[in-house]
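Researcher: Structure for this, please.
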Amino acid sequence: MTNIFSILNIGVRSLAAQQIAINICGHNIANINTPNYTRQSAVISSSMPNRLGLLQVGTGAQVTHILQYRDSYALSKVNLHKGMLAYSERKYSFISEVEQSLVSVNAQHLGESLTEFWQAIEQVGNNPESTPDRQNLAQTAKRLTSAIRAQNAKFRNQRTFSNNEITQTVERINQLTTEIAELNVGITASYGSEMTHANDLTDRRAEALDQLSELIDFNMIEDDHGSVTIFVGDNRMLVSRDQRNELVCRNNVDNNSFYDIYWDDGNSQRNITSFIDSGKLGANIEARDEMIVSYMTELDELTTTLLKTINRAHSMGFALRDQTSVLGEYAVYSSTIALNNALNLDGGSNLAYDSEAGTFNITITSGGEIVQSVTVAVDPDVDSLQDVVNRINSSTTLLTASVSQNRLEITGVGDHEFAVGKDTGGVLAQLGVNVLLTGFDSYDIQVADAIANDPTLIAAGATFTPGDGENALTLSMLADELLLNGETATFAEFFNSMVTRAGNEATTADFEVKHEFDNLDFYEGLREQTSGVSIDEELASLVMYQQAYNSTAHFISVVNSMINTVLQKLGS
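Model: Predicted structure, token format:
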């Protein structure tokens, strides 16, 4: 039934509806710069009518719910491309650092050091008895090996930095998932009423999901009550309603004790490192375990090839003077194991590279005169260090060979001295006798102590003859030999290819950053078309609701006048 007071209620409802609508307009305008804020509007519908006989008389309007203009497709695409942009930006940062480290003029440029090294060797070959030229070669070799070690250190530091960032990123992921689970609770609770939806909590959760997408790639589903479930790795549940699992970092002893990422549900753990492909976390993992490692592998290939070829060639020559004793730079794991079987053994010292069956020469002197020349044959696939010692001792009584700390030591008897050379199979080089360089790879390569202390021991001569620089000239020609990359590149070409590769990868990474930025810009624009706040639209709506409010106030004034008229009539 309708009466004059029910007419008044129409005005009251209308005022309330317009007030809510104006409030929401103000809320939209206030949040125009709030990240991930979604535009809202009041949905005003006719209230339930009253029956008057056969008629249904309207009772005005009311706000039935507050609508959010959310584009789920655009939002999912924004999250996807935010992760890919974060991944591309981090990857570009790492490859740019690699490129800079390879070409930096502020550091010792490895390419220049290589060139200077070959030039210094050739200079000794042309002037084999020149002390300054020999000292220059020793110093140039030091600069080269120092540059290689410095480059290795830069790569290792980059890997360590990536590893540290991984722990920080995992910690932040766990913080965000805790926040998302808590917001799930609040959002789900609001769905108990058909009239209420936790729009602002949903926006806060969208911001948390936005941040999470920059850190790690994930899949997400939203249920009918507004709660989201998040999966990472090989579809491992990270968040579901108010429940959450954690990501934890565990050392991988097979990867320099760097961290692997494990999904932990409190009862068991699962390694998901290989399944993380995007976001800042994916970029750090790829940079640490693949990109930087590939450059370290190339640097090690250059270094080990340099070590083996230089030392093999150097051990073919003779020093400028003879010695009273020598001690090999490399130790074997066991003096009774065949030399080529003593490579890369766990738990002890190793030899750096292999050798072949061949011979080496020992020229023995006394008082500056050659008194004996012996040739020792060795098959490293069969003979051990002890066998080498026995062969030397059985060849002459003017020298004594022995095993010292699993290294070859040769000492002259009495006033006898000696020079070693003509190492056709590379056994002396393998044992670190009469070598220019020592070490195993780019981490520890350096100039042999004997030559660093006394450059006259540089084996420049092909014979133990004054003025002979033939072996040094042979060494210098290694610069032009195709020894790397499957015997298709020289040392300089191989290093330059590393620099070129870094430049190309940096260019590609930069393109990917720009491409992902454009993608993100497009989908953010698409999201803003639906979800963004427009000042012009809000002001227009504000004017409309204001006019409706004023009209309603006038309507109530009219009804109030009608009530007063009735009351006056009744009073009279």
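Researcher: Any notable elements?
Model: The mean pLDDT is 92. Residues 83 and 214 are 4 Å apart (CA to CA).
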